[in-house]
Amino acid sequence: MTKPVVALFLALAGIFIIDQNIKTLFLEGFRYYTDCIDLTLVYNKGVAFSMFAFLKGWLKWVQLVLIFGVLVYVLRLKKVCYMLPAGILVGAGLSNVYDRFIHPGVVDYVYWHCGFDFAIFNFADVMIDVAVVWILLLNLKPKWCEAMQRDFSGKKNNAV
After folding, report:
1. Which of 1, 36, 104, 121 is most exposed by smallest CB count within 10 Å?
2. Which residue of the set 35, 99, 108, 151 is catalytic?
3. Active site residue 108
4. 19, 35, 117, 125: which is the annotated catalytic residue?
5. Per the domain annotation, does 153 fall within a domain?
6. What is the pLDDT tens value at each position of the chain, 160 positions in all?
């Protein structure tokens, strides 16, 4: 197994473990309230802004297939620069899907309400956003990827 694939799976496991441990605090009763941000337990039965909640039990299976598809795609792509952000994306996604299997919905806990009501989200949601922006930047700036791009044999790969 190559170092980039190991990095992908370490990022995946790390994000999953961190997110699940934070969620455990809220499941055990931790709450904190301020004028702008409340830290409180909410179960989200949909995805962002509760979209697709109508899918109910099917949503976790659809998400699992999509996450597996991303993982397979990135592994087959064999681009080193995508391994770390893909690991973060997949780890965070799996953590949220895992919630759907053991709780009534995804465990969300950060409620922003300073000046306007925003979404309720969690650490995994933030990591998904970070990973997506990272991947978009890699696509918009291919030279960033070229600098570290090597195929799994260790040879310089000029294909971008």
Report:
1. 1
2. 108
3. yes
4. 125
5. no
6. 488 899 999 999 999 999 999 999 999 999 999 999 999 999 998 776 666 767 777 889 999 999 999 999 999 988 999 999 999 999 999 999 999 999 999 999 999 888 877 789 999 999 999 999 999 999 998 888 877 765 444 555 555 4
